[in-house]
Each structure stands twice: as structure tokens, then as C-alpha cells.
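Fold this complex.
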Amino acid sequence: MTTRGTRAEQRERTRQALVRESRRLFATLGYGAVGLSEIVRAAGVTKGALYHHFSSKAELFRAVLEQVQEEVAERIAETADAREDTWEQLVSGCQAFLTVSTDPVIQRIMLVDGPAVLGWSEWRAMNETTSGRHLAQVLGDLIEEGTITAQPVEPLTHLLSGAMNEAALWLAASKDPADLDDTQNALVAMLRALRAT
Amino acid sequence: MTTRGTRAEQRERTRQALVRESRRLFATLGYGAVGLSEIVRAAGVTKGALYHHFSSKAELFRAVLEQVQEEVAERIAETADAREDTWEQLVSGCQAFLTVSTDPVIQRIMLVDGPAVLGWSEWRAMNETTSGRHLAQVLGDLIEEGTITAQPVEPLTHLLSGAMNEAALWLAASKDPADLDDTQNALVAMLRALRAT
DNA sequence: AAAGTTCACGTACCTTCAGTACGTGAAGGA
DNA sequence: TCCTTCACGTACTGAAGGTACGTGAACTTT
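Structure:
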């Protein structure tokens, strides 16, 4: 094999090829239905290369999931940060999540296989460092400024993120385009319920 | 092997043994970490017997999940049906779900591995025939009687069931016993938001 | 610049697992 | 009593994840 460029460059190229191709395959076929041989063939390398970069199939999946999580978090933050009002940041952020998460590619990796492959607690921890943190942050701010009734933040965070995850999965499978609007309306209604009187 | 009793009896006994032992193992180790050899050893049969009853490992898991789903649905219905008022049925049913689903055994099978092993849509369909149907039923009744603001039932159902699933998973991992109360309070507050003015 | 070291892989192999083919003996019917 | 059915047990296979070790180019050292 003709190795191009410096060693660090080559290393990075191989790693990215593995992550990119496995992300594609995991998303379309699901973690369990994708073999390592299929991945390395698509990436144009061998299993030796894969195990030089990742200690296991699950570790490779973790790398993919991290990438997906960061992308989702970024796209949500983009939308939310465009708003001035904290309350509007919450609402628009939630709506952005519902829109972004409709992508089946994101769904399978982030919402379906993620918890099963890495275990729920690890999956939770990863969420917490990306998009979950934003949600908790905004909710905390809103409680502090008195917009939302004083209460523990964590239960609220999990209730909302769970509601949105499930709704996103359902929306992806639904045919009626009106479902998205209906869901967002119901969600906003629930959010409004949290507001202090 | 000394087969006791009639053929139908024996058949049922082995099937139940397989379901019982695999349920135990799936719950404690997770679907992926349990081998069929381990299951048949625990059940006191061989792989021939397993594949005579179930066409695949996933099918065996499906049988286990069905059993778990029915148990959960029954326990919730028990609590909810004790109430006269439809609204109180919703509230007590939701609270019952949070309490029941705290069991790690139920969690791993029903909430973590279920969607990944069977695929989300099949998992959703199974839910729909058990506990999910009760929730949709009650919500529909409440909308019909005007207690809840008129709106499509499905989005609401998914938002709520998703919120409760995630909350249950979090509660199981949490240490603070006050978390359960906090979550139930937050949930009830969200439910109340749905009420027509 | 030559020799030595590191490292990013490739090759060959092992183990385990889900799944299959086929044999067997008791239950049930004729 | 004979024949069929069926609920398994036994023995095997292919594929999958994972490992041990070799190799040659990139870097370091002298």
C-alpha cells in the first residue's frame, strides 16, 4: 500500500474512513447486522487497521455516536442561540431537535442502537455532555429567572428529552406530514404548563 | 430423557422453562451478552429443543418481551381501574408505570434491548397492543369528555409514553429516593397542562 | 546518511456463537 | 400391532468478533 503524506495524516485519514463508512452501514442496517469485514472492505482497509484504531466493535460505534451527537447538538444550538429570550431558546431548541432527529440515519444510531450497544447509563452520560446539557442549562436558567415554577431540574430534563426522543422516532415512521405540527403544538403546550403563573 | 405426562404438557413445560431462564439471563446480562448455550443449559434442554420452539434468538426474545409487557400492562390496569374518574385513571396509571418500570429487570428487556433487537417499529407495535393502548384509550376518553383540550391523540400519547420511559430509566439509576416524588410531581404538572381551561 | 526504532497497518489464525441437518425414541392414532 | 407424528438430542457448519505476529515505510538517533 502506498502511504501518502506524513504518518499522522495517514492515521487520521484511515480513522475517518472507518468512522464514515461504519456510520453509513450502522445507520442503514443497524449495529447488529453489520459485520466488521463489511466495514473494513468499504473503508478500503483491513481488520488489523480497525483494531489498531479501536479496541472493539462497540468502541468504533462509540466514535460514530459521538460524531452524530455533536452534529445534532450543534444544529440545535445554532437555532436556539439565535433567540434572545431564554424561553424562546427552549421552545425553538425543542422544535429544532424534533426536526433534526427525524433523520432515520440519526435515529438508528442515536436513539435505537445507542442505549443497547453502550448500555443506557453510558449513553445517558454521552447525551449529558452534548445536547442534554443545553436542555438542562436552559431549564435551569428559566427556573432561576422565575419563568418556570421552582422545582428540581433533572426530572424535568429527563421527562422532556424522553418525550422528544420518542416523538422523533414516531414522526420518522409516520406518513402524515401534519403529525410534525401536531406534535410540536402538543409539546409547546406541555412546555407552557411549566411556566409559573 | 424421561418425558412426563402428555406431549402437550411436556411441550409447554420446556417452552416455559426456556422463556423463564432466558428472561432471567437477558435481564441481568443483556441480550447481546447471553449465548444460546447458556440459556439451554439453564433451562436443562438443548439447542435442538430451543429451535423447535423458536425460529431464532430474536424470536425467543420476543416471547420474553411479550410476557414482560403483559405483566406491566396488567399491573398498571389494576391500579388505574380502581379509580372511577377518568382523569384520576390517567394520573394513577402514569404513576403506576413509573413505579413498576423502576425494576431493572423490566427496564433492560422492555426499554433498552427491546427496540434494538426487534427494531423500533415492531417494538412500538407490541407496546401499542398492551400498555400503550390503555394510555391512548384514556387520553382519547378525556378529550372526548372535554377534560383535555381537543387535539390529535397520537402525538400526545408518544410524548407522554416517551417521557415516562426515559424517566423510569433515569429513576432506576438514581440514588436519591426523593427523585421519584419529584418526577411524579413534574409529570402530574405536565398532565395538568393538558386540561381544558 | 546510515543504522536503529516506532508505528500503522496487513496476514493468518483462533474462538465463539447463531443456526442447521439429521437421528431417535416415546406419544398418539389406525 | 404397526405406523405416523413430534419433541426433542447430537453433531456439525459458516460467519463473526477478536488476537498474534509479521512487514515496510516513517521518524529518530548518532
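The radius of gyration of chain B is 19 Å.
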